[in-house]
């Protein structure tokens, strides 16, 4: 019986999360808390007896560093890691670098909420969650899922919205449900898949 294990981890708190800024494809570092969250994710996985064969992450340093810190805690620093832009955070376009309160002053509370929480309305110059799904999902199907189905134990460290795209498919959530789904930073979500790629079980370590 193969594991068919897929673990998703959202990066630890970044400097811009702390400052309440829209981040997107900008590349701020982890805060001290973010470093601790990443280490804690690795420690919790180790304590539960998890080991991995391959890893995937985005081209943004906050996700890469989260993965590195977690693997160090796991004692698995030599694993193959694939970095790909398909797993990057949603591109917030003109909102990137803006404080969320300033954005509300500029465009209005209602409009900013639509950009943040609608499924298919992109901010100016940026991506909607639907757009993010359109690049993340094919990468998952072509590169990540085959590894899982071959019995590899796969760890993915990425971002709130790129992971939402995967969770939407894994858990068969509607567009309305996925935009409401909150992902805690540094809290692994553990999926075991059936041979047909459906989910056999899910454990969210945030709860």
From TrEMBL:
Substrate binds at residues 10-17, 23-24, 62, 89-92, 100, 116-117, 160-161. GO terms for molecular function: phosphoglycerate mutase activity. The active site is at 11 (tele-phosphohistidine intermediate), 89 (proton donor/acceptor). InterPro entries: His_Pase_superF_clade-1, His_PPase_superfam, PG/BPGM_mutase_AS, Phosphogly_mut1. Transmembrane segments: none annotated. It catalyses: (2R)-2-phosphoglycerate = (2R)-3-phosphoglycerate. Catalyzes the interconversion of 2-phosphoglycerate and 3-phosphoglycerate. Belongs to the phosphoglycerate mutase family. BPG-dependent PGAM subfamily. This is 2,3-bisphosphoglycerate-dependent phosphoglycerate mutase. The lineage of its organism: Bacteria, Pseudomonadati, Pseudomonadota, Alphaproteobacteria, Hyphomicrobiales. The gene is gpmA.
């Amino acid at each position: 019986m193969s594991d068919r294990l897929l673990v998703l981890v959202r990066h630890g708190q970044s400097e811009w999360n702390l400052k309440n800024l829209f981040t997107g494809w900008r590349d701020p570092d982890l805060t001290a808390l973010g470093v601790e969250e990443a280490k804690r994710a690795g420690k919790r996985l180790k304590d539960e007896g998890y080991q991995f064969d391959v890893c995937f992450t985005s081209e943004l340093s906050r996700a890469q560093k989260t993965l590195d810190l977690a693997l160090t805690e796991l004692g698995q620093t030599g694993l193959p890691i694939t970095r790909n832009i398909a797993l990057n955070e949603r591109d917030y376009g003109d909102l990137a670098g803006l404080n969320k309160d300033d954005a509300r002053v500029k465009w209005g509370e209602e409009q900013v909420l639509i950009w943040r929480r609608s499924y298919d309305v992109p901010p100016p110059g940026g991506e909607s969650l639907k757009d993010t799904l359109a690049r993340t999902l094919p990468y998952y199907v072509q590169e990540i899922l085959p590894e899982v189905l071959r019995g590899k134990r796969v760890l993915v460290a990425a971002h709130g919205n790129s992971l939402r795209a995967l969770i939407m498919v894994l858990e068969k959530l509607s567009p309305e449900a996925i935009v409401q789904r909150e992902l805690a930073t540094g809290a692994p979500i553990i999926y075991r898949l059936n041979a047909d790629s459906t989910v056999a079980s899910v454990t969210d370590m945030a709860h």
